[in-house]
User: Fold these one by one.
Assistant:
Number 1:
Amino acid sequence: MNEKDPINSLNEIKSMMQKSSKFTSINGWSGIWAGFVGIISAAIAHFILLGNSSNYSNYQEFSDVSTVRLELILLGIVTVIIAATGGFYFMIKKSSKDNIKFINPVTKRILKRFCFILFIGGIVCLLFIKNLNLLYFAPSTLLFYGLALFHVERDTITEIKYLAITEIFLGLLAYYFIYNGLLFWLIGFGVLHVVFGIWIILKYRNKA
């Protein structure tokens, strides 16, 4: 018993240091929530585009360009708000369970770095929408989202790095297969997040 106590103490100290230097409140349910929101959003976007043109890869065929543009912008805003709200809820819940203060210097640092990249990406995407270059919207959102995740991966759990790299890869693929952007968006923001969330739950369920 005495031999195990020093080891347990070292593990506890290591755990405390990690919690104070890294954001460990990533919750698998946050990923699953974001994934389902992404899937629903992609389906709505599909019907918005399909409702204005039989061939929505050709945006010149839209019956009402201004309406499509406005609907897509509103859909994007609502999607981000709903996904972020649910994500924060599950992360705050996990922080409370782990007796960790959610708002701390690490969280603030991550939010600043993450939001900076997303802000730049958001401006780029809005410019694409403004100029009706909608084909580049989906690849750009995937790419900048992946870059934002990669920018903060050192401050959070290791698995975020793999999610970031996959999102970046999907974004680049979406640029290459430019007419399948919505499909890649569905995979990247929908399916991939659900898979990621399940992976996190299964991996850390015995460590709770």
Number 2:
Amino acid sequence: MRNILITIEYDGKNYVGWQMQNNGISVEEKVKTAIEKLVKEEVKLYGSGRTDSGVHALGQAASFYTNSNISADKLPYGINSFLPEDIRVIKAEEKEEDFHARYSAKGKEYVYLIYNRSIMNPIYKGRASHVFYKLDLDKMKRASKALIGVHDFAGFMGSGSDVKSTVREIYDIDITKNKDLIKIKISGSGFLYNMVRIIVASLIDIGRGRFDENRIEEILETKQRSMANVTAPAVGLYLNKVFY
């Protein structure tokens, strides 16, 4: 039996998220069904992790076992023929028998897009979060450096999450701007529920002057969720890459 890893891109606005749920259509359901139609057998699809409703992906990863002899380079085309246009498998590769898309992952990279102008650009509607306040990128960049390294990120975790540890490592965070589009790229060993979106919301408040630059450090020290801002909208978040 072969173990296949696929890389997936999707526009998340029409889905309840990656994981199968009873309250709507998920990306996982669509991909699993497409694979089964192609290989003509039932498969168990193992995703690298969940993405919430409305969150997009440029590099979601999932693995499955199959008896099919379809070559890896042809699998994306076959799977895509059964998928809607807002989901695409862009790569497939054969992995070792014990490889697992979730448990073999070494880390992830997310991108958050902010359209920073008084009037939203309709081209980016549904693909970037609109912030009409003028943001000071230099303040945001300086504040973000406190996030790098191993920390207890309890203050940046959304409610309703049950985890053994809230300690994570952030490898890097990069904030850039091209005209009115701000890109926040953050990579790390793993992320708590809504962690990236809460970090982004706090950085936005620093950029608009609502919070001081040392607010990130204060949240890390106190571990109090109430010290951070609301959660930034899902619409601007992309799972960019999974590291193996």
Number 3:
Amino acid sequence: MNPRIIVRMAALAVALLPLHSRGNSLTLDQALSLAVERSQAAQAARSGAASAAQTARAAAQLPDPVLRAGIDNLPISGSDRFSGRDSMTMKRVGISQEWVSAGKRSARQAAADAAVHREVAATHASLADVRLQTGMAYLDVYFARAALGLAVHDERHAHDELETARARLSSASATSQEVLALASARGLAEDAAAEARQQLDVARAALERWVGVPVDDVAAAGGSTAPSEDAYVSRHPAVVAAQRDVDMARSEADSARINRSPNWSWEVSYGQRSGYSDMVSVGVSIPLAIAPAQRQDRELAAKLALVEKAQAQLAETTRVAVAEYRGLSTEAARLAERVERYRTSVVLPAQQRTAVALAAYRSNQAPLTTLFDARHAELEADRKLLALQRDLSRAQASLVFKAISEGDLP
């Protein structure tokens, strides 16, 4: 089976029922652009990515220095209590700084960048979902209008046939039973048209929820090419998200590995004594990893376990995406075969039957009900074909819009 499936969307329905699209019809590209622009879910995802990007900018920076001030060696008893006359008493001011190695800061930066990439992937996944839902709503409107066209066509024929039967009844060339049957048929056709209008209104409301503007009519969607299996899987939102989780887990594991070595801190202070020499103090603080096997090694082991978890989830998500693609491809291919077979083996014979019944009716060799039955059978065949084409278009649209747009990936 050729993985390059040509997506015709609703173009197949044009062969069945030409629609008179208006000049201001909404196109699929316009609908997708409007939906992406106004999507609050996409905006929320963008805000999350912006937040992660701001956090990443500070990840590689050194901690803020600490200002220290105080009084050292102040007597609290004796004749010099609470005074600065003692030679050991001094006012002190200093500054300390925790020193984080360049390797640690680089690892923190990598982890922060991985978080940014994960948020960006969430943004693109949100946009892909918006496009998918909008495309489906667009197709629903298109095919609902096509179904309405069929229903209106049937309604008009039912009305004409009833009027003809009534005229023939007055001339005794038709029976009252035929007239009553056609009257019932017209009522059914009118109800079917009303139901089709209702479904079109519902479909329009669903599309307007995405595009944010009133939708009167939609144009036929142009052809588009579905991605290959590898492209579909690599750009699948769940696969991209799982890959970003793996990248982030690896970055955090690298950071935990480097964190096994402690951060040093240095301090410089200046002490002032009344009547005595001022002093300067310099010091270094070094944390002692007295039990790395119980702390640092366990933290690293925990991060490495999360890497294995993320990799397993990625493998499982990839398998699901592959199965999804193959299922959609198979469904689209089978539906395309059914559409073509149904058109040639059902729709065309139904049209020929109607033509034969019409000729027989005009030559007074068949009653009007025979023509009505033939036209009704043709209409049902057209409706079935339209339903198959709608299913085909939705399956093909899933192949096109489910994956993240190629231009959105880094």
